[in-house]
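Quick one:
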Amino acid sequence: MARIALEAVTRNDFGKGAARRLRREGLIPAVVYGTTTETVHIALNGHDLKKALKKRAGLVLDITVDGTSFQTVARDVQKDYVRDEIEHLDLIVIDDATVAARLATD
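Output:
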């Protein structure tokens, strides 16, 4: 699986106006969440994020926020298809939990 490291900054302003201001500055608003981590609202560099997401699906993004590192995958990408721009990104943290699976056999 391909991995790409990205730097992010935390964001404290929320809502449509704050998101538009971020996008004007070239940043993409995003949320990092998972079962074992607290929700973190971040902003990612738009150019670097677009390059990373064009690589392939199932990409692992190593996000660093204020010295804390998260291994994430994109869960939801909201796009403006007219302008071909990413509006918002939901990232889910990958943890090392054991997953039980059932396999059907004949």
